[in-house]
């Protein structure tokens, strides 16, 4: 597995709030979360990843469409902003405004299919779709669902 998308603070107020300080990935886990954000792991040696991020006021229902792998966890941010992006940085990284700083709950779902990449036929290449649902751990309201693609 390789590091895939991750949530990290958009601006740090605390030296402890770094995704690099997250616990190591346990065997078979698709993600790790903690103070500073979350890190998600793709399968294979190369992956094309599409992520749908949903911010909810309260815990949402489980998705109706089937997803392969699942993770549940919590993270804390010291600011009201996180970046959904790649560990290597990317022009497609997205800043997400959260309603409040503090603790959040998260569910992540990963589904992937192997594919052949003409430029790198010997590598394990995959197309992956992720659904990440998050909501405040407290009773703070965030309004309606706001998907970010």
UniProtKB/TrEMBL annotation:
Region (Disordered): 1-26
Protein name as catalogued: Uncharacterized protein
Organism the protein comes from: Amycolatopsis keratiniphila subsp. keratiniphila
Top-level taxonomy: Bacteria, Bacillati, Actinomycetota, Actinomycetes, Pseudonocardiales
């Amino acid at each position: 597995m390789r590091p895939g998308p991750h949530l990290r603070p958009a601006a740090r107020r605390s030296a402890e709030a770094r995704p690099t300080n997250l616990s190591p990935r346990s065997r078979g886990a698709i993600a790790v979360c903690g103070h500073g954000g979350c890190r998600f792991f793709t399968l294979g040696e190369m992956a094309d990843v599409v992520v749908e991020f949903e911010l909810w006021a309260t815990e949402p229902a489980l998705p109706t469409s089937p997803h392969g792998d699942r993770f549940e966890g919590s993270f804390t941010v010291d600011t009201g902003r996180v970046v959904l992006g790649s560990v290597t940085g990317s022009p497609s990284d997205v800043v997400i405004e959260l309603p409040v700083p503090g603790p959040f709950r998260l569910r992540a779902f990963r589904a992937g299919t192997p594919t052949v990449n003409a430029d790198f036929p010997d590598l394990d290449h995959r197309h992956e779709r992720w659904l990440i649902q998050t909501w405040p751990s407290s009773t703070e309201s965030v309004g309606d669902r706001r998907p970010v693609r």
